[in-house]
Automatic annotation (TrEMBL):
Name of the protein: Enoyl-CoA hydratase
Keyword hit for Translocase: no
A Pfam family it matches: ECH_1
NCBIfam families membership: PRK07938.1
CDD domains noted in UniProt: crotonase-like
GO molecular function, one term: lyase activity
Domain of life: Bacteria
InterPro entries with a match to the protein in the record: ClpP/crotonase-like_dom_sf, Enoyl-CoA_hydra/iso
GO terms under biological process: fatty acid beta-oxidation
Family: Belongs to the enoyl-CoA hydratase/isomerase family.
Alphabetic keyword roster: Lipid metabolism, Lyase
């Protein structure tokens, strides 16, 4: 359980998230993702990183239950800073990051995927940012990297989800494959990149980030400021308490 890293072919770092039951990451988990992605390029000298997950889905966002059982705002601040650190590490990783997504990818999961360089997904994968239902804001920065502006706004305001298969037409998901073939699909792309001159690939990653029209780090922090306002107003606590209460109710 937690974050693990495996080095394949001496060139591909596979970073796996595993936080049962739904990969809702606790505060430390976000920092661990950030550290694993940084270490993949800096310590393991990988030429490419594959970010994947075990379990029912890729990522369910932050651990709201941890937030609600922690007194004060420490967990809230920790989750916000941890998410920022993880998203930043993926975006600023010196080598390409491939996200291999299965099942649900929600909230903070969209932050990780939106900042990745390439996305492959299984045929059961879907994406969404349910933040407004939790009394929070965030990850619109990253959802906007997956879908056009007006669709992003509709998905954001409604908390609707969108299938990976529908993202292929927008060009944000490279391909959709059966669940059992997801890892192979991600590794196929990873090996293609790893075969290139790593000096050129690292230069290319830095160059592409340099011409990006949106500063994803500042944009996301701007969004988070409104989350803090909603918390100070007591709005966010109401919605998170409702989420936790509903999660405790037995399923029919």
């Amino acid at each position: 359980m937690g974050i693990t890293t495996n080095l394949l072919d001496g060139t591909i770092a596979v970073v796996t998230m595993n936080f049962p039951p739904v990969n809702a990451l606790p505060v430390q988990g976000w920092y661990d993702v950030a550290e694993a992605v940084r270490a993949a390029a800096e310590t393991h000298h990988a030429r490419v990183v594959v970010l994947r997950a075990e379990g029912r889905g890729f990522n369910a966002g932050v651990d709201i239950k941890q937030m609600q059982r922690t007194a004060g705002f420490d967990a809230l601040i920790g989750a916000n800073r941890g998410c920022h650190a993880a998203f930043k590490a993926v975006y600023e990783c010196p080598v390409p990051v491939i996200a291999a997504v299965h099942g649900f990818c929600l909230g903070g999961g969209v932050g990780l995927v939106g900042n990745s360089d390439t996305v492959v997904a299984s045929d059961d994968a879907y994406f969404g940012v349910p933040e407004v239902d939790r009394g929070a804001l965030g990850a619109a920065t990253h959802l906007a990297r997956l879908v056009p502006q007006h669709l992003m706004r509709t998905l954001y305001f409604t908390s609707r989800t969108i299938r990976a298969a529908d993202l292929v037409q927008h060009g944000s998901v490279l391909e959709v494959v059966p669940r059992g073939k997801l890892d192979d699909a991600a590794l196929t792309v990873a090996r293609e990149i790893a075969a290139k001159d790593p000096r050129v690939i690292r230069a290319a990653k830095e160059a592409l980030n340099g011409i990006d029209p949106v500063d994803v780090n500042r944009s996301y922090r701007f969004e988070q400021g409104f989350t803090f306002e909603l918390n100070l107003a007591g709005v966010a606590d109401e919605h998170r308490d409702e989420f936790v209460d509903n999660a405790r109710k037995p399923r029919a």
